[in-house]
Structures are given as structure tokens and as C-alpha cells.
């Protein structure tokens, strides 16, 4: 019996340990966006479904000895495939569309091992029920979720802080070898005692409750992914913010399957109804809350919803003989939920409406039915759904605002809105919940940069007043400045281009390029020659280096997605790449305005490591323009000593922390949280 427990615990831990590890490996190659995690979850849910389907078919159609032979063969093949995981090559898939690139990379590197780990839970529970007829196999399901929880928690608190990515992969590969040995030993020891006719229940998939199992499982996964998306659209998508929601998701399974009496339907319904109110506030006014408040409220929404979905699943579970079909339907629901978030939601919605819709769906799945239900109870429940819907419509409608354009893709959701400000129309680009540029529609204000890019901000000063450290260039060369700009937004920084200047924008999201070109006039009005390179800035700069340095005078780093910045653009290796493309007297301007992160200490340390000086420019909020914080890295004293720049220099808001430094192999976002 102990070998069953050890094998199922180890398989679950490995199953969930690899998820944040591989997702973090993928982030730099796909722009560091939050959608990388949801795309990974689509693969993991699909492989979980495939594993459960394999387990169900194996137990239903093959004798125990035939099961042993086939599963042993697949385990040996998985062991032979482990070198693909130990030395993965992400760049081989970088030319594919981002979602397809994620799926192909994961399938190629970890497909067979993950498939077998996914099948382990229902397989071992089925075999356990045949060997120990008086014991409940559902306790092993709770144990597997405890193993999953342990694997998830081990990553952000043990593996990520203390090990390089290459070392993390080595430890995982070693763990899989131990798991395979345990599983092989278990099969060759226990399966011979099972009766040849022992099969999984054949009719369980056609039970009346099957559709309800499917919907409850799908709703739990949609809620998990929607909450994670909401959390990581304003903070960089790090494993910690992936792991915490997933831990609560698993914890709800552990509680309801291990201790059924912990699921008190009335209590969790009450908490979930309260959470629906919090969900509305977070969706429309989330930026008004600090990070800790957002985290706690989102997690309350998630946990209460998952306790209801999974509590109902536990209450409706079948007899042990039908458990493989039951788990198959649960996995199918999870895969459908993941497909809905990754494929259907971006096609159907321009905003992340799935977050609000899944709250309403869970509420309706708990519709009061059965003996003793009164009509007034059903009427009250219906009125709650109507009130929630009307609240969404009321919050969505805002006087004085016109929606011009909206689009959603793998990289996030964009909208263009016209807003009346004191009788003057201003157009804004909204990425997620954050304004990424604004422009007045009427001249002469339409020719002036607004928001974080207005006159006097750090980037504006660098572009307007850049001068080489020593006047060794000719007058013609001085009029042919070259600027690199990582992140396009509405294109506001193009207003600082002068005749003879060249401005090269690097933009990952094709939707941003479309919006800036078609709905804002900054690019077309610029006096400079404007070029746009579509793709991740770091990958594009690395590729361009093969044909020589770009020789930028100023490089502006402003690659935000909503209110977060991709970590791979702020590592020591990234800084080295930037300075290979900058003149030795150039200026690197980094936008650090952020509600939740303090990146100034990180940049000061990176400047020091390269022998550069770092300068902080904080422009206070004025009217509708927000406060803008920029850090300039340079040794060009001739530029810095200009009166316009000297007057803008500010004192650092926080002391330097020498321990904060990021590399491609190791970065810890917790170090820079405000």
C-alpha cells in the first residue's frame, strides 16, 4: 500500500513542478506576456485529458498483465526521451504563431513523460481498488492533490530562488527516473494478483450527471485561468503569481475529496455571492487597490468558486469501479475550459469578459432544484443573476466616452477610446487596464506628446537634448541622430524626431502597430524617418547584431503590457545587448512608472556593474497626466550637464539594494515589489 501512496505522490509533484518551470523558460521567447501561462495550461490540460483517456481505455479493454506490459514499455520510452527536456531548444519554434509555438515546444520536450504522469493518478487508483477492495481509492486522489500542491509550492520558494534553470531541469529529470522505478516496481509486484476480468466501469460516461461533471470541471478551470490573467496583467507573470491561484485550486480538491464534510454548500454559496461583488469591483476598478488587496480579493473569488465547483463534483462522484470514466470527464471539462480561455475568448471578446461570465456561470450551475425547493428560492436566485448582469451593464456605460476600436490577441486586449476633457476630445490607447498613450484630436495639441511622454519627462529630455560627449561628429552627423524605441504604444515619442533623425520602434504586438498607424497620427506627423520592427525587441536586436551594431544615440525601453514589464528585458544579458547597439556616449532611458514594482534599485545596480551612472527623473502628475518616472543610464556628462536635464533630475525615492540583480538564469520579482 505504501508504494501506491509514494508513486502517486511523486507523480503528482513532478506533474505540477514542471509547469511553472517550463512556462518561465518560454517567457523570454514570447515577449514575457501573461498569455504564456494560459497557453501552457492549455497544453497541460490537454495532456491531462489524454492521460486520463489512456488510463480509462487501458483499464477497460486490457487485462492487468497486458496493462503492465504496455505501460512498462511507455515508461522506458519516456526515460529515453528525457534528454530532450534536459537541453530544450526554444528557438526552434520561435517562427511559429505564439500559441502554436508554446504547444509544439511543450509537446516536443515533455510530451511523453507528462502524458504518463497524467495517467498515473486514475491508473493507480483503479489498481488500488482491485488490490484493496475494502479501502477507498478516493483518498489517493486527495493525496495526489497534496503532492501537486507540494510540487507547486516547492518551485517559487525552493527551486526558483536557489537554482539556475539548467539545475532545475536536472533535478526534475532525476525525480522522473525515481518515479519510473517506483511505478515499474509497483506494476510488477501488484498487478499479477488482479483478476484477469477486472475492468473499469463501462457505462459511467453515460450517467445523467455526466454533463454536470463536465460543466463544473470546466468552470473551475476557466475561473482559475481568468483570475490568473487578471492578476498578471498589471504585474509581470512570474511563477509565484501562477502558483498561488493554482495552489488554491488544488487545495479545494484536497479538502472536498479528503474530508467531504468540509464542503458546506450554504456557507460557500454565501461567500461566492459576496465574491461576485468583489469581482465586479476588481474588473472595473482594480487599479484603485494595492497589490496585496488585489491578490487577497482575487484569491477569495477563486477559492470560493472552486470550493463550490469541486464540492459539487465530490458530492456527485460515482462508485470506485467507475472512477476512470469520472476522472476522464473531469479532465475533459478542464481541457474545454482551457480551450475556451485560449481560443474562443480571444475570438469572441475584445476584453477579458470570461472572468465575469464564469462567475455568472458558476452561480447558475448552483440553481436550487430538488425536493423541498420553493419557487421563491428560485425567484430569488434568478434575481441575483439579473442584478449581476445589470451591474455589469451599468459599470460598462460611462458618459462622455466613445469606444473607437478594440482588439484582443495572444498578447492582450487593446482598446481605443475618445474621452471629452473640458470640451476637448482626447484619444487614449488602453492596454488591459492601463493607458499606454493619449493624443488630442485637434491641432495644435495633437502635435504634443501626452501622458508619460510629455515634455519634461525622462524620455522626452533624452530625445530632445541628446548631444555626443565630445564634438567629433560633423554638423551633418549631428543632424542624423538615430534612436531606438522598445515599445510603440500610440507612437507619442515620434513627436521628438527632427528632420534627419531616424527612429526605429520595436513592437511585439501587431495589434499595437495597427492601432498606432491607423488611429493615432504621431507616426505620420513625425519629422523623422520612422521604421517599425515587429517582434520581441531583445530577439530582434540579437538578430540585428549579426549584421552590426545599430549605433543608437538613445535607446528607450518602454515595453509595458498593461502595467507590467517583461523581466527578460531587464537582465544583465539584456543590458549588455543594449550597449552593443548604443554609442559609448549614448543614453539608455528606461520607463519605471509602476503601481506595484520599484525597478530603480535594479537599474542602479546594473548601471554600476557596467560602469555607468544612473539618473532618476520623476515628473509629478499634472491634470489628467499621470506621474512619470524614468531612469537614464549614461556616462555622457555633456548631455547630463545641460540646464534642461539638470533641472529635471530628482532624488531617488528609495535607497539602493545591492543584492537586486537579474540574469537570464535567475530573477526574483519579489525583490522589487513595493
TrEMBL record:
<feature type="transmembrane region" description="Helical">
    <location>
        <begin position="138"/>
        <end position="158"/>
    </location>
</feature>
<feature type="transmembrane region" description="Helical">
    <location>
        <begin position="239"/>
        <end position="256"/>
    </location>
</feature>
<feature type="transmembrane region" description="Helical">
    <location>
        <begin position="170"/>
        <end position="188"/>
    </location>
</feature>
<keyword id="KW-0620">Polyamine biosynthesis</keyword>
<feature type="transmembrane region" description="Helical">
    <location>
        <begin position="33"/>
        <end position="58"/>
    </location>
</feature>
<keyword id="KW-0472">Membrane</keyword>
<dbReference type="InterPro" id="IPR029063">
    <property type="entry name" value="SAM-dependent_MTases_sf"/>
</dbReference>
<feature type="transmembrane region" description="Helical">
    <location>
        <begin position="291"/>
        <end position="314"/>
    </location>
</feature>
<feature type="transmembrane region" description="Helical">
    <location>
        <begin position="326"/>
        <end position="349"/>
    </location>
</feature>
<keyword id="KW-1133">Transmembrane helix</keyword>
<protein>
    <submittedName>
        <fullName>Fused MFS/spermidine synthase</fullName>
    </submittedName>
</protein>
<feature type="transmembrane region" description="Helical">
    <location>
        <begin position="379"/>
        <end position="397"/>
    </location>
</feature>
<feature type="transmembrane region" description="Helical">
    <location>
        <begin position="209"/>
        <end position="227"/>
    </location>
</feature>
<feature type="transmembrane region" description="Helical">
    <location>
        <begin position="98"/>
        <end position="117"/>
    </location>
</feature>
<keyword id="KW-0812">Transmembrane</keyword>
<feature type="transmembrane region" description="Helical">
    <location>
        <begin position="355"/>
        <end position="372"/>
    </location>
</feature>
<feature type="transmembrane region" description="Helical">
    <location>
        <begin position="70"/>
        <end position="86"/>
    </location>
</feature>
<feature type="transmembrane region" description="Helical">
    <location>
        <begin position="268"/>
        <end position="285"/>
    </location>
</feature>
